[in-house]
Write a structure and sequence with these properties.
The chain contains 19 helices and 6 strands. It is mostly helical. It has 3 domains: 87 residues, Orthogonal Bundle (Fumarase C, Chain B, domain 1), CATH 1.10.275; 283 residues, Fumarase C, Chain A, domain 2, CATH 1.20.200; 68 residues, Ribonucleotide Reductase Protein R1, domain 1. Strands 1-2 form a two-stranded antiparallel ribbon. Strands 3-4 form a two-stranded parallel sheet.
C-alpha cells in the first residue's frame, strides 16, 4: 500500500477525479439511451454522481482497505443510491477501458496548455525577430565563425522548428483523443452499447476500432514522448547558443538582470543561470520522455500496469516540465537584449565574408568557382600569416594572389572588392527563398505569422468544442434528473 496503492491514489486524485465523473455521466446516459438500464436507475446513478461531484475529493479520503479511486467512487455511489441501482454502473465496462479513458481525458488539458504556451513563445520570438531584420551578426558552423547572417534569420529558424513541434504536439493530441470506452476488459461486451455515443459525450474525435488495441495500445503515450523529445532537443540547442553568446568573450547578448545571479566573492560576475536552469530542466524533460518510451518497450501487448498507473507520474510530469520550460523561455526572449554594434563588427571578422569574394570572382572575373575558391583560400592564408583581418585585405594583395594562381592580372576594382567583403552586402544579396536577406527573412516571418494564427485558431476551436461538449453532456444528465 505504502509503495504502490497510496501513491497511485494520490496521482489519481490529482488527475483523474474530474474525468472519472465525466465518464460516469456519459456511461450512464449511454446505458439508459440503449435501454440497458431503466430511466429510474439512470436517474438514481446520475443523482449520486452529482452528489459525489458536489462533495469533491474531501469526501473521498484514502482508505487502505480500498484498492483505488475507482472502487472508492463506486462504493460511495452505491452507498448513496443503494446496490440495486449503484451496482449497475459497471455494466458493459471494465476498470481497464475506463482507466485508459480517464488517462486520455486527463492528458487533453495538459496537451492544450502546452500547445498554448508554445503559441505564446512563438509570438514572442516572432516579435523579437521582426525587430532585428537588419541586425547583422556572425553565423557559426562547427562552432566557428562561418558567414554573416541576421538575428532575425536565426530566429526564423527557431520559429520553424517551434512550428514543427507545435504540429507534432497536435498530432499527439489527435492520437490521445480516441475513445477506448466499450472495450471492457479487452474483448468488448455482450450488451448492446453505443460506443460512438459514449465517445461523443466525452468529446473524443473517434472510437478506437479494435477493443484489443483500446487496452494494449501505448502509442498515445509514445507520441507525446516523441513530441516532447523533439521540442526538448531543439530548445537545448538554442540554450547552448545563448549560453555562448552571453559570455564576455562573445559579447553578443545580455540576459536581463532578473535572470542572472551574482557571485558571493567576485563582484564583477553576471551569471546567466536562467539558461543553466533551462539546460538542466531540458535534460529532465528528455529523461522523462525517454522513460515513457522505455516503459512501453518490451511489455505484453495487453493489460499491464507498466502503461497504466506506473507510467502516469512520468507522463504528466514530462508535460508539466515542458510547460515550465516553455514559459521560462518566453520570459527570456521577452527581455533579451542584443549588442548590435558589436555583432556587426564581429560579423566581418575572421574572414566570414570571403565566400562572397569567391562568388564575385566567378561573376565579375569569369573564373571557375574552384579556381576562385583556391585564390581566396590562398588569400586568407596570406592574410593570417601577415596578421591581417578582413578589413585589411587590399586590391593589391588580391591581385598578387590572382597572378600567382592563374598567371593573369585581376579584372576587379576596389569598390567591387569592398562590397564583396562587406557583411551587410553579404547578407543583402542572399535574397532567395529562406535566405538571410531582410526581404527573404521577412517573407519567412510573414509565413510564420500566418501559421501561428492558424494554430491559434485550431486551439480556440478545440477549446470551444470541448466546452460545448461539457455543456451538452450536462444537458443530457439534467434531462434524466428532471
Amino acid at each position: 500500500m505504502q509503495h504502490v496503492l497510496q501513491p497511485a491514489y494520490q496521482g489519481a486524485t490529482a488527475h483523474l477525479f474530474a474525468p472519472m465523473l465525466a465518464a460516469n455521466k456519459a456511461h450512464v446516459v449511454m446505458l439508459a439511451r440503449q435501454g440497458i438500464i431503466s430511466r429510474e436507475n439512470a436517474r438514481a446513478l446520475l443523482t449520486a454522481v452529482m452528489q459525489v461531484e458536489a462533495e469533491g475529493l474531501e469526501g473521498l479520503a484514502y482508505q487502505a482497505a480500498v484498492e483505488d479511486l475507482f472502487f472508492l467512487v463506486e462504493g460511495r455511489l452505491i452507498e448513496i443510491c443503494g446496490p440495486e441501482y449503484g451496482g449497475n454502473l459497471q455494466l458493459a465496462r471494465s476498470r481497464n477501458d475506463l482507466g485508459h479513458t480517464l488517462t486520455r481525458l486527463a492528458l487533453r488539458p495538459y496537451l492544450l496548455t502546452l500547445y498554448q504556451q508554445l503559441l505564446n513563445l512563438r509570438e514572442t520570438v516572432l516579435t523579437l525577430a521582426q525587430k532585428h531584420i537588419y541586425t547583422v551578426m556572425p553565423g557559426y558552423t562547427h562552432t566557428q565563425p562561418a558567414q554573416p547572417t541576421t538575428f532575425a534569420h536565426y530566429l526564423a529558424g527557431v520559429l520553424s522548428f517551434l512550428q514543427g513541434d507545435t504540429e507534432r504536439l497536435r498530432r499527439a493530441y489527435h492520437t490521445v483523443n480516441q475513445s477506448p470506452l466499450g472495450a471492457a476488459a479487452f474483448t468488448g461486451t455482450g450488451f448492446n452499447i453505443d460506443r460512438q455515443l459514449s465517445a461523443d459525450l466525452l468529446g473524443f474525435f473517434d472510437v478506437m476500432p479494435s477493443t484489443h488495441d483500446c487496452i494494449g495500445s501505448s502509442e498515445h503515450q509514445t507520441d507525446i514522448a516523441a513530441a516532447l523529445t523533439s521540442l526538448g532537443v531543439n530548445l537545448s540547442r538554442i540554450t547552448h547558443d545563448l549560453l555562448f553568446r552571453a559570455t564576455r568573450e562573445s559579447g553578443a547578448i545580455r540576459i536581463d538582470d532578473s535572470f542572472i545571479q551574482i557571485s558571493s566573492i567576485m563582484p564583477q560576475k553576471r551569471n546567466p543561470v536562467v539558461l543553466e536552469h533551462l539546460r538542466a530542466r531540458l535534460s529532465r524533460l528528455l529523461g522523462q520522455a525517454h522513460t515513457v518510451v522505455v516503459q512501453c518497450h518490451n511489455i505484453p501487448y495487453g493489460d499491464t500496469q507498466d502503461i497504466e498507473d506506473e507510467i502516469e507520474p512520468t507522463l504528466f510530469g514530462a508535460l508539466g516540465t515542458a510547460v515550465d520550460i516553455v514559459q521560462l523561455y518566453e520570459a527570456v526572449f521577452t527581455t533579451l537584449q542584443l549588442n548590435e554594434a558589436h555583432l556587426l563588427a564581429e560579423a566581418a571578422a575572421g574572414f566570414t565574408t570571403v565566400t562572397e569574394l569567391a562568388d564575385t570572382l566567378v561573376r565579375e572575373a569569369g573564373l571557375p568557382f574552384r579556381t576562385a575558391h583556391h585564390i581566396v583560400s590562398r588569400l586568407v592564408h596570406r592574410a593570417i600569416a601577415e596578421e591581417l583581418d578582413t578589413a585589411d585585405i587590399s586590391l593589391a594583395l588580391l591581385s598578387e594572389v590572382v597572378q600567382e594562381v592563374v598567371g593573369e592580372p585581376l579584372m576587379l576594382d576596389a569598390d567591387t572588392l569592398a562590397r564583396a567583403l562587406d557583411p551587410v552586402a553579404f547578407v543583402g544579396i542572399r535574397n532567395g527563398l529562406g535566405g538571410a536577406a531582410p526581404e527573404a527573412t521577412t517573407a519567412v516571418l510573414q509565413d510564420q505569422a500566418i501559421r501561428l494564427e492558424e494554430d491559434r485558431e485550431w486551439l480556440d476551436n478545440e477549446e470551444f468544442r470541448l466546452e460545448a461538449i461539457a455543456r451538452y453532456r450536462q444537458e443530457q444528465v439534467d434531462a434524466f434528473l428532471s
